[in-house]
Amino acid sequence: MTRSRVAALLALAFLILFCLSGVTATTTVKETTASIDMSMPAVLFSLSSASTLLLPLSLCAMIAAFIALIQGERNVGMLFAGISTVTFALFMVFFARERLNSALYTPLSDALDAMDVSFRKRDVERIYVSYHPAMYLALASMALATLLAMPALGSASNRRALKRDLLPYAYIGPHLFFFILFFVTPAIYGVYAAFTKWDLFNEPVFIGLDNFRTMLFDSSNTYYRQLRNGLFNTIKFVIYSVPFCILVPLSLACALQSRPRGNKFYQALYYLPSLMSITTVTLTWRYVFNPDYGILNNFFGSTANWFRPPYSWIVVVVVTVWWCTGGTMVIYQSALASIPRDQYEAAEVDGAGTWQKFFSITLPNMRYPLMYTFITTVVAQFNIYGQPDILFGFTNQEANAVLLQYIYENSVKNQVAGMASAMAVILGLCIMAVSFVQMRVMVRNNRD
Question: Which end of the chain is more exposed for a tag (fewer CB within 10 A), N or C?
Answer without folding.
Answer: C
